[in-house]
C-alpha cells in the first residue's frame, strides 16, 4: 500500500511539473505560425492536388490539437499526416519525404504525443522549421531544450500501478495501435456512432441549405450553385444568406446572371470556365461590382472562345478545353492571356498540321510544366512554353493512344456511375461521392470491393471516397479508396 501511495504521489507531482510547461491553445497557434505559413492551402492555388492534401491534413491536425486540450484527456490514437511545404531544403532522415511534380516537398509524420508542447515541437521539427521562437512564448523560465527533454523523456510506471487502478497503460495502447492496421470494419465500429450523431445534428441545416439553393437558383434562373472548397454546411448556408440579402437590396445588378453557375471560392470574378466567382471574404460591395461587370466579362469570353477556335485550326482541329478538377482555378483574364500568348507562338511557328486531321482529340494548356504529356483520360497536357516542333512530334506520336484513352474514359465513366448507383442502393446511402483527387479507376476499384462487404452504420449516411479516414464536422464519413 505504501508503494502504491508513493507511485500516485510521484505521478501527481510529475503531472504538475508537466502542466507548468504545457502550452495553452493560443500559445500553440502562435508557435505553429511558421508551419501554417509553409503549408497554408491559399499558397497552393495553382496546384489543386497539393492544396487539397494540405486542407484535409489541417482539418485532422486541428482535431488532434483540440482533443489534446479537452478536460480529462488521456491518450489519442497515433495520427499520420502528410503536408506539402513550400520550401525544398532536405529534411531529416527520420521523416518520410517525396517531391511532387510541382516541386513542393511532401512531408509525412505521425503524431503520437500527449501534450501540446511536445506536439508543436514534433510538427516544427518534422517540417525542418525552427523551434527557437517557442522559447519566447513564456511557457516556462527554463530553456526550451531542458523543457523539451523533460517532456519527451520516457515515463515508465510499474505494471502493478495499472493492474491495481484499472487505468490503461498508454505505452501498451500505443504499441497495440501500431501493431494493428486500421481496417474499414474496425474504423466504422469506432466512428460510426459519432458520424450518425453529427449527421443527425446537421440535418436541419442541410434542409435549409437545399431550400436556399433551390430558391436562389429559381429566382435568379441559375444553372447551378457550387463551392470550390469543402466548407461546412453552416458556412455554406451563411454564404447563401449573404447572396439572398444582396438580391433583396440590389435586384437590378443580378439581371445578367441567367443560365450561369455561381461558385463560392477565394476570390471574386469570372472563372476560365465561365462561372461567376464570389469571394467568401469579400463584402457585398465587391460582389456588386462583379455583377455589374458581367456584360464586359461576356464580351471577353467570346474573344476567348474565338482564340480557342483559332488554336484548334492551327493544330489540326484538336479541341482546347479547360478542366476545373485538373487545372488551377484561373480567372477569365488570366486564361485569356495564357491562350493569347500560346496562339501568337503557334501562329509565328506555322506548324504543318493537316486541317481537321486531329478532330476528336482534346488538349489543356498548363503554365507550370515544361514537357507535354498525355493524360490517362486521353487529353494532351501542353505547356504554354512548349517548343512548337517538339509539340508537333509529340502530338503525332501519341494521337492514336489519345483516341484509345478517350474511348476508355467514356467506358470508365459509365462503369463508375453504375457502381456508384449500385453501391448507394445496396448500402441505403443518402449520398456517395468522391474527392476530385480520387481518379475514376480508383473509385471503380473501391466500389467493387465495397459491394463484396456487409457494412454497418451506412444506411442514410453520406460516404466520401478519399485518401484517409475521417468523420467530417457534418457527419460525412471519409474512407480511403484503397481501404483494407
From TrEMBL:
<protein>
    <submittedName>
        <fullName>TCAIM protein</fullName>
    </submittedName>
</protein>
<feature type="domain" description="DUF4460">
    <location>
        <begin position="20"/>
        <end position="129"/>
    </location>
</feature>
<dbReference type="Pfam" id="PF14687">
    <property type="entry name" value="DUF4460"/>
</dbReference>
<dbReference type="Pfam" id="PF14688">
    <property type="entry name" value="DUF4461"/>
</dbReference>
<feature type="domain" description="DUF4461">
    <location>
        <begin position="182"/>
        <end position="484"/>
    </location>
</feature>
<dbReference type="InterPro" id="IPR028031">
    <property type="entry name" value="DUF4460"/>
</dbReference>
<dbReference type="GO" id="GO:0005739">
    <property type="term" value="C:mitochondrion"/>
</dbReference>
<dbReference type="InterPro" id="IPR027989">
    <property type="entry name" value="DUF4461"/>
</dbReference>
<dbReference type="InterPro" id="IPR027986">
    <property type="entry name" value="TCAIM"/>
</dbReference>
Amino acid at each position: 500500500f505504501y508503494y502504491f501511495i508513493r507511485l500516485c504521489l510521484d505521478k501527481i507531482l510529475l503531472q504538475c511539473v508537466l502542466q507548468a510547461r504545457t502550452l495553452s491553445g493560443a500559445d500553440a497557434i502562435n508557435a505553429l505560425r511558421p508551419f501554417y505559413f509553409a503549408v497554408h492551402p491559399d499558397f497552393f492555388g495553382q496546384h489543386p492536388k497539393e492544396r487539397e492534401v494540405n486542407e484535409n491534413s489541417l482539418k485532422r491536425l486541428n482535431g488532434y490539437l483540440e482533443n489534446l486540450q479537452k478536460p480529462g484527456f488521456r491518450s489519442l490514437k497515433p495520427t499520420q499526416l502528410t503536408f506539402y511545404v513550400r520550401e525544398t531544403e532536405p529534411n531529416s532522415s527520420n521523416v518520410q519525404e517525396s517531391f511532387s511534380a510541382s516541386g513542393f516537398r511532401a512531408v509525412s509524420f505521425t503524431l503520437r504525443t500527449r501534450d501540446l508542447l511536445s506536439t508543436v515541437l514534433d510538427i516544427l521539427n518534422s517540417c525542418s522549421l525552427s523551434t527557437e521562437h517557442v522559447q519566447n512564448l513564456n511557457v516556462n523560465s527554463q530553456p526550451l531544450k531542458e523543457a523539451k527533454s523533460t517532456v519527451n523523456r520516457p515515463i515508465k510506471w510499474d505494471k502493478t500501478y495499472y493492474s491495481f487502478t484499472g487505468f490503461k497503460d498508454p505505452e501498451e495502447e500505443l504499441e497495440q495501435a501500431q501493431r494493428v492496421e486500421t481496417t474499414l470494419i474496425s474504423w466504422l465500429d469506432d466512428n460510426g456512432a459519432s458520424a450518425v450523431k453529427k449527421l443527425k445534428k446537421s440535418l436541419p441545416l442541410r434542409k435549409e441549405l437545399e431550400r436556399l439553393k433551390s430558391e436562389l437558383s429559381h429566382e435568379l434562373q441559375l444553372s447551378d450553385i457550387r463551392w470550390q472548397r469543402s466548407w461546412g454546411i453552416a458556412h455554406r448556408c451563411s454564404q447563401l444568406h449573404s447572396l439572398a440579402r444582396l438580391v433583396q437590396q440590389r435586384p437590378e445588378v443580378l439581371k445578367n446572371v441567367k443560365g450561369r453557375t455561381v461558385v463560392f471560392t477565394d476570390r471574386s470574378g469570372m472563372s476560365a470556365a465561365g462561372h461567376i466567382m464570389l469571394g467568401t471574404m469579400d463584402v457585398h460591395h465587391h460582389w456588386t461590382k462583379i455583377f455589374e461587370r458581367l456584360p464586359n466579362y461576356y464580351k471577353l469570353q467570346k474573344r476567348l472562345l474565338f482564340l480557342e477556335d483559332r488554336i484548334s485550326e492551327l493544330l489540326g482541329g484538336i479541341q482546347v478545353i479547360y478542366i476545373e478538377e485538373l487545372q488551377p482555378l484561373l480567372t477569365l483574364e488570366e486564361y485569356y492571356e495564357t491562350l493569347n500568348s500560346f496562339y501568337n507562338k503557334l501562329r509565328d511557328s506555322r506548324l504543318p498540321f493537316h486541317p481537321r486531321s486531329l478532330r476528336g482529340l482534346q488538349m489543356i494548356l498548363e503554365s507550370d510544366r515544361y514537357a507535354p504529356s498525355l493524360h490517362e483520360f486521353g487529353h494532351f497536357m501542353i505547356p504554354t512554353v512548349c517548343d512548337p516542333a517538339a509539340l508537333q512530334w509529340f502530338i503525332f506520336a501519341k494521337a492514336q493512344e489519345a483516341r484509345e484513352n478517350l474511348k476508355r474514359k467514356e467506358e470508365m465513366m459509365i462503369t463508375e456511375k453504375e457502381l456508384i448507383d449500385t453501391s448507394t442502393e445496396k448500402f441505403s446511402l443518402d449520398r456517395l461521392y468522391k474527392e476530385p483527387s480520387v481518379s475514376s479507376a480508383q473509385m471503380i476499384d473501391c466500389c467493387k470491393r465495397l459491394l463484396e462487404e456487409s457494412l454497418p452504420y451506412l444506411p442514410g449516411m453520406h460516404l466520401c471516397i478519399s485518401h484517409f479516414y475521417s468523420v467530417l464536422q457534418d457527419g460525412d464519413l471519409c474512407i480511403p479508396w484503397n481501404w483494407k
